[in-house]
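User: quick one, fold this
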Amino acid sequence: MIDSILNSSAADTTLSLSHALLTLAIAIVLGAIISFTYMKTQPAYSPSFTLTMMVLPAIVAIIIMLIGSNIARAFSLAGAFSIIRFRSAPGDSKDISYVLFSMAAGLSAGVGAFGYAVLFTVILCALMYVLKLIKFGTRKDAIKTLKVTIPENLGYEEAFEEIFRKHNVEYELKKVKTTELGSLYEVVYTVKMGPQTNQKEFLDAIRTRNGNLDITLTMNPAVQEY
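Assistant:
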């Protein structure tokens, strides 16, 4: 019985007004569910990105309905889309997964598999909530990028070794470059801090050693919480 419900819409491939409106309505509803899930599971989000996820399933569904089983039409649409250039700021892996999620929902609705489209959307949205609740991928120790400007008379290789050891901070030297015509060095470290590390005391010690020159401590985006 469940299989008949899931496959009943997929069997009808004839494009009619009622079928097109039903497909569009389901795609919009699925996009709204995905967009709402994204807003509830992400600490910060872009309104334009949530709007994109809202309409993306409907756009994909329309394209699939227009193509149907017509190979010539498929090649024509592929050629039309190949001349379109999309410009956007690169997003992180979570945003890319939601984009693929929205496209999959629109694709399922476009081919008429309404039952599977709803089923998979509900399952994946529930999965996103569960991963958020259990804080999947969260690290107890924070990996960050530390950029320190030091004078040329301070050796960058051993300049902060004592401070790192005192504050129990693991570190790896990533990059060194000269600034201000060689009078200053910019040293970049990857540092791993435990929950017991006092960041203010740590930065104060760095500031005292480098003579109050610029210090930047940023979170590494590759290891942030899911």
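User: anything notable?
Assistant: The two ends are 38 Å apart (CA to CA).
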